[in-house]
Each structure stands twice: as C-alpha cells, then as structure tokens.
Amino acid sequence: MHFGLVDEIIVPSCIIGLLAALVQFLIIKKISLDPEKQELSTSLTGEVPEKLVPEIYAKIMDGAIQFLKVEYAICCLFCLAFSLVIYFLVSWGTHSSTQGALTAGAFLTGAFTSMLCGFLGMMIATYSNARTTLACAKKGYTEGFNTAFRGGSVMGYALCSLGVLVLWILLTVYRKVYPEANDWEMLFDCAAGYGLGGSTVAMFGRVGGGIYTKAADVGADLCGKVVAGLDEDDPNNPATIADNVGDNVGDIAGMGADLFGSFAESTCAALVIAAAAVEHSNNTLSAAGWDAMLFPVSISAAGIVICILCGFVATNVAPVKVEADIERVLKVQMVLTALLMLPVIYYLAVLLLPEHFRLEGVRLTEDGSQAKIHGTPFKAFICATMGCVGGLIIGLVTEYFTSHSFIPTRELASACKFGTAVNIIQGLALGYKSCIIP
After folding, report:
1. How far apart are CA 264 and CA 167, in angstroms?
2. CA distances from 163 to 71, 192, 250, 395 (A)
C-alpha cells in the first residue's frame, strides 16, 4: 500500500493517541483496590469506609455491563435492519447497487465503532471512579484530580483515535472501488453513512441511558430522601447503585457515542463538501489529489497529538493542588488546546491544499443555483479557525453562566430563598440570557 503525505499524518497520530490512552490506563491501574494494600486515610473523605469501595465498584460495573449488553443487542438488531433499508433506498436512488452496498457498509462500520467507543468509555470511567475515590482519600486533590483526568483522557484519546483511524481505513478501502478522482464525489457520498451510523447509536445511548439514569435518580431520591430520610448516595439506599449505573451508561457511554457521532458527522460532511466538483473546472480538490481531500481528517488527527501535549500540562506542569485549582486547570486546557491548534491548522492547510481551488454545493445564488466558491488555503484556515475559536467562546460562556464561581449562578441560588416562583422566573431569564452569545 502506497502511503501519501496525509496518510503519514493521520495514521501515526492515531497510533500515538491509542498508545497515550494505554499509558494513561496503566498509570490508573497502579492504584490498587485490594483492601489489604490500601493505606487508609481521611485526608478528604471520612464518611464512607474505603474498604467498601471495591464492593460498590463491583456492583456498579456489573450493572453497567448488563445494561449495555441489553441496549447494544437492541442496537445491533436495529442497525442491521436499517442497513438493509439504506441499501435498497440508495441503490434505488442512485441506480447503483455498489453505492447502496458501500453506504450500508459505512453505516454499519460507524454504528459498531460508536458502540465500541461507548463501551470502552463506560468501562474505563467505572474503572477510574473507584480509583479516583481512593486517590482522593489517600493523597488529596492532586492525585484525585490526576486520576480522574487520566480516566477521561483514556476515553478521549481512544475514542478520537479509533474514530479517525477507522474512517481512514474505510476511505482507503473504498478508494480501491473508486480509484479515479472523478468518482470521489460518489466515494464520499457513500462514506457519509459512517456518520449516520455513529449518530444512530448515539441516539440509543443518550435516550436509552438518559431515561434509565433519570428513572434511577428519581427513584433513589424519592425512596431515600423523601421516604427514608437518607442522604444523597447513601450506601444504605438500594437505588444508589442503580443511580450510579445510570450515570455510567447514560452520561458516559451515551456521551461517548454522542461525541463519536458528532465527530463522524461533521468530518463526513466536510469530506462531502470537499468532493463537490465544479462542472468544467480543473481546479477542484479532487484534481489536487487525495492529500487535499483528506484535509479535514488530518485536522482531527493532529488535534489528538495537541490534546496529549496539553493533557501533560494539566497533570505534570501545573497540577491541581487545592479545590479552587480544578476550574482553573480545566479552563487552561480549553484555551491552550484551541490556541495551539491554530498554527497547526494553518500549516496543514498550506501543506495539503492547492493554492487555488473551486467548490460548489456550499451555498446558493439568488436564483437558487449552486454558487461556485473560490478557495485558498488561507480561506480554509479562516473557516477552521472560526469553528475552533467559536467553540472555545461557547465553552467559556457556558462556564460563566453555570459555574458557582461566577455571579449568574450565585444570583440564581439566592433567588431560591424567595420561593419557587422567583426561582423559576430567574432560572428562565438566566437560561435565555446565556444563549445570546452562543
């Protein structure tokens, strides 16, 4: 197999991401759950004996696995049935059974990759939760935060690396079917099924897991707080285990699949736009070659390496020492990652894209026909920069309106003292206000 320039960027970046996930997992694994090996302490927690952690962890892990088995069994049946629908509809619409088969294959690939990402995310999160508890109990905020951060890093690195690598493999295989540049528009239309498969499983994960976790949460609150007068997450409340299981399958496995679906959809959409050829024009990205076509994928691949470098800053260069540092460290991660990505995007644009190219299908003219867009590497860089900086601004604005460190949330908490009506009105007003900038 001949590796082009873009392949030499994508594949090593994904391998580095998977290795980074493995290293972070091995660091977390060093924290033992064996009660005999634990140095019992009460530096941060003293309410729950640390020897109960392995028992609670085992019950939560078992419950989460059983839930995902049932959920993914239903997902598999639905995806297999829906892939047949996709095959027949695409074959009928394009008058090509080959396109129908490739689109259905991409759909199944995206669906099963999404399931794998969700499952791995849930496993490592549950695995890290117990060890984060022990790390906090033994050594305080620094080790506790680092353990939790590394657990999230394992999911993030593995999810993005698998998503990009599987997409690259899929496109490489489909390129064997459509080797000519003139056919790449059909190739990427077929590959768009990859994003649809990811979002389909994300729907099951977010909705199914969300319903389960809310039902368990309400059950735990009603039975424990209202009826028995128990505290939140009291181990004497049998619904507490179900509540924690729901947090894992809904907020973690579901969000992992949702994150993969969003990434796959946006990347496939960019690839479809990149393949849009202008009639009677030789200045298309397809004519520029395979490297230019996979420019969007190369950005995602390079972002994996940037995130690894920034993650090292959070755990080693400027770690958390007290509780107030947690918010600062996470905010530094957002800002630093976005800023470091900007020069990388510009370099990739200059390296992979031609000096001038033309696209269609991006916008319409006044008479409704497709406009011909003239592009350059700098224009592509500006587009990617707007998305990167825009996402950063949305994240910072969201934090401002939802963090207790800032005035809006504190005002809402104060409004609760004056009754339900004031609380609802203040909350609605704050919610509307928070949406203005995003």
Report:
1. 8
2. 21, 14, 20, 23
Rounded to whole angstroms, how far apart are CA atoms 21 and 112?
A: 20
Read out DSSP for 135-199? HHHHH-HHHHHHHHHHHHHHHHHHHHHHHHHHHHHHHHHHHHHS-SGGGHHHHHHHHTHHHHHHH
Give buried/exposed letters for 29-63 (b at 16+ CB in 10 A, else e).
eebebeeeebeeeeeeeeeeebeebbebbeebbeb
Name residues whose C-beta falls within 8 Å of residue 58's C-beta, 6 or more positions apart in sequence. Answer: none
> pLDDT at residue 316 above 50?
yes
Which of 2-6, 141-145, 167-171 tops mean pLDDT? 167-171
Residue 385: count other Cβ atoms within 10 Å of its Cβ.
16
pTM over 0.85: yes
Q: CA separation (Å) from 141 to 37, 109, 134?
A: 21, 40, 11
> Looking at residue 292, what is its pLDDT?
87
Q: Which of 334, 331, 327, 329 is nearest to 388 (CA)?
A: 334
Per-residue confidence band for 89, with pLDDT thresholds at 50, 70 and 90: very high
**In this predicted model, which residue has the larger pLDDT, 100 or 250?**
100
- Is the separation of the CB atoms in 237 and 230 below 8 Å? yes
pLDDT of residue 260: 84
- pLDDT above 80: residue 346: yes
Largest CA distance in the chain: 76
What backbone phi and psi angles, to 5 degrees, belong to 371? -80, 145
CA-derived radius of gyration, the chain: 24
Structure tokens at 48: 């729950």
CB 281 within 8 A of CB 366: no
Identify whether the C-beta of residue 304 lies closer than 8 Å to the C-beta of residue 160. yes
